[in-house]
């Protein structure tokens, strides 16, 4: 019994019965796990450190008495209540499934079987023929088109996104096309939408810092970093707040202003992202698909929004991400020859490239190459060694931890790592710092 119950927060989903079938996973979010731990520790300490007035009633060593007391109290006041809760949950789930099954099978008319005529010249058959019951019909017909996953694997919009969009989005689209079944594909589709919203918001926030633009959404983003963390909604609000500043931009800004502009009837990139966030919230609150056919239906409803969002976000191909490797000053030309890696497409080994610029760019930093100059993505996007993967991963700033620094989450696998050196920049994320050279 494992269900994702959390709202749109950057925390691991809660899995009912994820530990031994009794306790929820992660355990620190299960009150009964805390209850068991408290009783176990309390009983052990009470026996291990008795009061001076208490009389000793056992010949066993005190440490063994404490261990046995901890086990007994943990069993009586922790494991047994957890097992009772498991039985209650199973009963509730069985009742819910029976109710759903009853709702799915329409009422069938009672079948009548005419009695066989028996004449004197015809002996009665030994057994009457059994009535043939019509098969029960599902409550909602599932069309074969929704179960045809090969159309997603061959989708031209997704294939183009894999080869041209920034690495985090392209990598997620690759996972979507390689998913093995409808349920996995549904989950990855929601993750892809989350990554796309994050990249759009990061692009807007980085451009705003680069151009000295401030908005109310950026102020809320700054507050979210130092409180509960950043969600999809924050990133979409940041992207939405960039529509007016981009429309007033004097220099050419490829495609972003047009993509953020609403179409007829409220349609557009932001509308599709809002629909995808609504579907994400349904899944996160426990209303996700329960089986593969239902996942296929939900996927058929979700994919049009995701395809349109990826297609309308194709302007990001004109905002390439590059990772600076080495910058060399050329005295005669009075510019820099920069060796960089182009972080576009789904392959983790970025393509090498060389650029010349008069701007001072820092090594090992991600930049967006825009027509108005190189936009520093730090502290929103960085590359750091991942202690879990044992390799360098592209990560984005997720929230601020008071003790460990900035919590970074890798785009590819969602691993968490910490970077104390980014704290000051995250705390002032809504305040512009000038152009790229000023940030170094």
TL;DR?
The chain is α+β, with helices and mostly antiparallel strands and 440 residues long. The chain has helices at 31-48, 62-104, 144-147, 150-153, 156-164, 167-178, 182-211, 216-226, 232-241, 243-247, 256-260, 269-287, 292-312, 423-427; strands at 15-19, 23-25, 321-330, 335-342, 351-357, 366-370, 373-376, 381-386, 391-401, 405-410, 416-419. Among the domains are: 15-51 and 60-101, no CATH class; 144-318, no CATH class.
Protein model, in words:
It is built from 14 helices and 11 strands. A hairpin with a 3-residue loop joins β1 and β2. Residues 1-10, 104-122, 135-147 and 434-440 have low confidence and may be disordered. Among the domains are: 15-51 and 60-101, no CATH class; 144-318, no CATH class. It starts with 14 loop residues before the first strand and ends in a 13-residue tail after the last helix. The chain has helices at 31-48, 62-104, 144-147, 150-153, 156-164, 167-178, 182-211, 216-226, 232-241, 243-247, 256-260, 269-287, 292-312, 423-427, and strands spanning 15-19, 23-25, 321-330, 335-342, 351-357, 366-370, 373-376, 381-386, 391-401, 405-410, 416-419. It is an alpha+beta fold. The strands form 3 sheets. A 5-stranded antiparallel β-sheet has the order 5-4-3-6-7, with helices on one face. A 4-stranded antiparallel β-sheet has the order 8-9-10-11.
